[in-house]
Amino acid sequence: MSHLRIAVTFLCTLFALTAGAGESCQVGGSAIPVGKTKQELCNLYECATDSNRVVLKKLTCAEQAVKTGCRSVPGDANAPFPDCCPTTLCRGRQWDH
Questions:
Q1: Domain for residue 21, yes or no?
Q2: Domain count for the chain
Q3: How much is the average pLDDT of 21-33?
Q4: pLDDT tens digit string along 50-73?
Q5: CB 52 within 8 Å of CB 66
Q6: Where are the beta strands (DSSP E) in 28-75?
Q7: Which residue range is the domain that position 79 belongs to?
Q8: What average pLDDT does this structure show over 23-47?
Q9: Cα torsion at 33, 38, 43, 46 (round to 10°)?
Q10: H helices present in the chain, as ranges
Q11: Torsion of CA 89, 92, 94, 97, to 10 degrees
Q12: Relative to the CA of 76, which of 39, 46, 53, 59 has its CA 20 to 30 Å away?
């Protein structure tokens, strides 16, 4: 019985280590291997596995609701994510930047 337990443990470990091996996500004609990221304009893509499925995660700037006394300042369009995203500056804190 202990040999069976060792064999099952070995196979489960091997499967966990090879999940997603050789697989990739497609983004605009290029492939991102599982476990890697790709920077593109103001987006960051990550190819990952989730419950034995290959998934593509995309991070991009969120729209912000600007409160009274604050203003939105555009980010540098040539900067990598998240430095390309706009920031919110408010009176009394960072207004004079």
A1: no
A2: 1
A3: 89
A4: 999 999 999 999 998 999 999 999
A5: no
A6: 30-33, 37-40, 43-50, 53-60, 70-73
A7: 61-92
A8: 94
A9: 30
A10: 2-18
A11: 100
A12: 46
